[in-house]
Amino acid sequence: MKDFVIIGHKALTTGDFSLNDLPGSAGRMDILCRCVNSALFLSHGMRRDVNVHLVLLGEPCPGKVIRFNGEKLKYLNPDERSSGSLIKKALEKDAIEYETQSTPGVWIRRAGLEKLLTEFKDAGRDIYYLKEDGEDIREYADFNTDAVFVLGDHMGVTEEEEGIIGKIAKQTLNIGPVSLHSDHCMIIIHNELDRKEA
């Protein structure tokens, strides 16, 4: 499996938001919805070997993780409103320490960035942090296709979060000379992995 971790600093942590106003009332949930779609959709298909982990840090109760699993996912269409609806349904569930399934292929639990990344590290997974000043992904020889990629949202990553990631990540990578949106980065990462696997 390939795993993408996206940090949503403003994303609401209750289902009390309008699907008609994902950028505003939901705390830039539109960014996370685009990331879900970019990570999972192919032309006329879906990537079944991908997990997307949304780390929600917005009000009123920060510290929830929603996981989309491509292998088991149903009811997702390639538009922001569709992924927003699945996130909304997940947030209507009580988030506890263990994952609770809200719809097929979507789970929610109470956790934060450090806990999530530590679990990946303990499982022997390679974690890569995507940042503009990282090593070029095309020049990094020891690049694992079964990896975990960490990206920030429109606010980037805080100094505290960068400290957490820096202690756990195997390498900081960049995907090119120009700063891109997180959802665009994910498509380029997939393209690099597709080429490597081919």
Ordered list of secondary-structure elements with their pairings:
Blueprint: E1 2-8, H1 29-40, E2 41-42, E3 45-46, E4 50-56, E5 64-69, H2 80-91, E6 100-103, E7 106-110, H3 113-122, E8 126-136, E9 147-151, H4 159-168, E10 171-174, H5 182-197
Parallel strand pairs: 1-4, 1-9, 8-9, 8-10
Antiparallel strand pairs: 2-3, 4-5, 5-7, 6-7
Search tags:
198 residues, Alpha/beta knot, 2 domains, eight-stranded mixed sheet, two-stranded antiparallel sheet, 30% helix, globular
Task: Describe the fold and architecture.
The chain has 2 domains: 2-110, 3-Layer(aba) Sandwich (Alpha/beta knot); 115-197, 3-Layer(aba) Sandwich (Alpha/beta knot), CATH 3.40.1280. The chain is built from 5 helices and 10 strands, in the order βαββββαββαββαβα. A hairpin with a 7-residue loop joins strand 4 (50-56) and strand 5. By secondary structure, it is an alpha/beta fold. The protein has helices at residues 29-40, 80-91, 113-122, 159-168, 182-197, and strands at residues 2-8, 41-42, 45-46, 50-56, 64-69, 100-103, 106-110, 126-136, 147-151, 171-174. The protein starts with a strand and ends with a helix. 30% of the residues lie in helices and 27% in strands. Strands 6-7-5-4-1-9-8-10 form an 8-stranded mixed sheet, sandwiched between helices. Strands 2-3 form a two-stranded antiparallel ribbon. The model has no long low-confidence stretch (mean pLDDT 94). Helix 1 (29-40) packs parallel to helix 5 and helix 3 (113-122) runs parallel beside helix 4 (159-168).
